[in-house]
Write a sequence for this structure.
């Protein structure tokens, strides 16, 4: 009974839940955490967690380990490797939503509630991937992972940078990647994986909309140059978009026509020339 009370207290606020989720090194907890408590902690003191807990099953990738090419996806093992990488993207996204809710505690509660809602979506996406991985005969931990998002997203100093990088950047690029991979999986004969990409892509539209709406609230619009200024170095739009742009999905997510026009025409400035 005492243990039950202690556990209930430990998860009493969303903040504690988020911190536990982030720091947990238990794969089962990462995929199926306890229900989210109802209230946030009253403190507004930010906490910036430097690194997530990593379950022992997750082995870091060596440099140069690449994803299989689309043509290789006819082979089950290669499809599993791609789905495993996507599972790990979802894990990092779920963790970074918790990270932001703790790092930007002085933002409106509505924003932080939105982050937690997205976190739960990402965890649901993880489960979709791991279930399909199991039907292919693989499990989480069968392929190495790289915490790429974690090495870059926590450089965001404020919530504007966070929504610029995460929602309007990485998740928006996922609208392009999900469309492309749905086609690759379908061509490889894996209709389940193809439909999963489409379903996840549809969910991500809402995540991008959330970020775009808050970016507008905080900066006064969906302006491409303001977005560019909000990206901490070395982020570049080049890694935050796919080709071709998912214009319709991005527009449904609230990105303005002018923003999309500038994003599609963006060319990085040449470096190394004498000034
Ligand atoms: Fe997701
Ligand atoms: Fe997302």
């Amino acid at each position: 009974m005492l243990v039950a009370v202690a556990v209930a207290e430990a998860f009493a606020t969303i903040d504690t839940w988020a911190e536990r989720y982030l720091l947990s090194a238990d794969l089962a907890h990462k995929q199926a955490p306890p229900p989210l408590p109802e209230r946030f902690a009253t403190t507004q003191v930010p906490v910036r967690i430097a690194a997530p807990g990593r379950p022992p099953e997750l082995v870091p990738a060596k440099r140069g380990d690449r994803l299989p090419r689309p043509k290789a996806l006819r082979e089950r093992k290669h499809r599993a490797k791609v789905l495993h990488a996507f599972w790990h993207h979802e894990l990092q996204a779920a963790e970074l939503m918790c990270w932001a809710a703790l790092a930007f505690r002085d933002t409106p509660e509505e924003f932080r509630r939105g982050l937690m809602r997205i976190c739960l979506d990402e965890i649901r996406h993880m489960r979709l991937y791991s279930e399909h991985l199991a039907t292919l005969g693989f499990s989480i931990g069968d392929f190495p992972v790289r915490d790429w998002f974690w090495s870059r997203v926590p450089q965001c100093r404020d919530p504007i940078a966070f929504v610029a990088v995460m929602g309007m950047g990485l998740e928006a690029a996922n609208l392009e990647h999900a469309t492309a991979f749905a086609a690759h999986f379908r061509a490889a004969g894996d209709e389940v994986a193809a439909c999963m990409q489409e379903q996840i892509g549809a969910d991500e539209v809402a995540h991008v909309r959330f970020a775009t709406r808050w970016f507008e609230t905080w900066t006064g619009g969906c302006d491409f140059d303001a977005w560019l200024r909000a990206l901490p170095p070395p982020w570049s739009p080049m890694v935050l978009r796919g080709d071709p742009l998912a214009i319709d999905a991005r527009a449904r997510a609230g990105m303005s026509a002018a923003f999309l026009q500038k994003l599609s025409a963006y060319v990085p400035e040449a470096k190394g020339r004498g000034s």
Notes: Residues 93, 118, 122, 171, 204, 207 surround fe (ii) ion (ligand 2) (CB under 6 Å). The chain has one domain: 72-265. The chain has eleven helices and no strands. Residues 72-265 form a domain with the Ferritin fold (CATH 1.20.1260.10).
